[in-house]
Amino acid sequence: MALKTNTSGDKPKSGIKAIAEALGISIATVDRALHNRGRISAETRTRVLRMAERLEYQPNLAARDLKLNRHFTVSVNLPIGRSFFDRLRAGVLEGASPFRSTLKIEVRNFTRTQDHSRELESIKNAIDAQVNGIITAPPNTPQMADLVRRAKEKVIPIIYISTDAPESGRLSAVTAYPFNCGAMAAEVLAPYMQKQGSIAVLAGDLENLNQSEKLRGFRTALSQTSPELAVASVIEARDDPNEVYQQTCRLLQTVRNLSALYIATSTSVPALAALQDAGRLGSVFVVTTDLFPGLVRFIRDGAVKATVFQCPEEQGSIAIQTMFRYLSEGIVPPPSIGVIPQLIIRSNLDLYSKNLEDVAQPNSRL
Description:
By secondary structure, this protein is α/β, with parallel strands linked by helices. The chain is built from 14 helices and twelve strands. The strands form two sheets. It has a six-stranded parallel beta sheet, with helices on both faces. Helix 11 links the parallel strand 8 and strand 9. The termini are far apart. The relative contact order is 0.13.
């Protein structure tokens, strides 16, 4: 039987009815093939799936789940008080909007502490609440590994966002290719350096794979592009603003010939304040991470030469959509999902900052 073709030049319709008409079979047969249920031959199912791909068919999962009276609750556990996590959270909420009829988001906010106690308690509470899934950016600690195991026992998948611990047992992780983020920073910085200057890296918690991979990428790219250069000092400030400021002050006192600084954490403003207070802002070549309102003026003034943007909204949107497909369709995601990082410099800053606003804090429950 000949397939019906579209000669109008318009994009073809992509619903189940369109697939059935194109193949000359019933809608019921297409439905069984797409959802792999009922009696249907392998040949027919293959024909249906190929036509669905050709017509760019996208199932309305929320409508189907509503019809079947299926509802899901996903807990989003992220720190408050930092623009990066606010934007991750906003991305999750935006990505969940197409599924709002069957998907409930519970936002569990907490203030991050050095011992991660509030963070771990937040995730424990989500597990105890019997949610269907959890999205979080947790520490890489034995206590967190225990919580992941406990969640798996209760069939609660966990997706990591902006960090990873591949051996933890989490379902998947969404990151911005941290190794490449570090390498991008090195390639921007290396041409500026002179042999007599020193390079330092200011990182967060290096037990966090996101941070350690940035450092590894930075060192690798630096050795490839400028073998004569090396990292003289690595500061691990664990994202605490006061510690970032104090450690940057100590760095300036101990490394007198500091010429370049890569800030691998989004807690960059305290480090920039320390440079300014020491009269070194502008004389040290600085590459930062991400973009938020407090950083814009430093880029515009040339004090920060570039920032590596990790696309937090996109990470958040991908994480919740991946979780929903897993819960609704049983589609197992790849172990890790990458978002391509972007480089922001003064010449393209307005393209990113014109719509940049502080993200309002959501309520603890939505």
